[in-house]
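We modelled the chain as a single entity of 228 amino acids. Its sequence is:
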Amino acid sequence: MAQMELNLDSFVSLRQQLKLDGLTLPGIVTIAGLSGVDGFSLTFEGRSPSFTEKDLELAIASAMSTRFALRIPPRAELLQLALTLPISQVTFSADKLFEDYGADLESFIPQLKDAGKLISFRLDPDISLLKKAYRLQADVVELNVYHYTESASAAGQVEAQEQVALMARTAEKNGIGVAVHGGITYQNVTPLVSIETVENVVVGRSIIERSIFVGLETAIRDFKAQVQ
């Protein structure tokens, strides 16, 4: 049975765009945690004056014992931050991740593993990328499924779903957990969770959109019902 991970990036963007001072991230995290999400994730690049390290710390503290994955590009100052925060997972995300940051990753990953952090990479569904993640001792891979969620045809969706399934099976055989992200909604999630080796569904924007009409608690519980 797949778990539901609430990605908080869209909530942060919405608050900044609309200047909603009453929409606090700790409040959202608290409500979501009580509503049954299995984990949280949040991207932090450390270069936004409107979302600081203090804001990040408050969000993580509000998650209490719920799993929290920090998404970062492989930069030294962000590594030090990840080492000190009470998070369970670090997800590396960047364009040309392995080509441009291979040496950095080889240096960073042992330090994070020694600190008890799980290591994840955001990847397109490409076997060659999965092999590189395996060599770097990935615990989890987070597969981009936009090619499935944005396909305009049923045949295209089936082909994309089969590619995700192949990646997920291959990852599992090599001891790597599998998460999926990218344009996932209430309407398209069921085929993804029917792939037995998909362990985690990362969702954000569709939860925001539904919460406008039914509230955050109901939006989360409705999505969890779809996942389970």
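As a brief sanity check on the tokenised model: Residues 43 and 71 are 4 Å apart (CA to CA). Residues 154-173 form the longest helix (20 residues).
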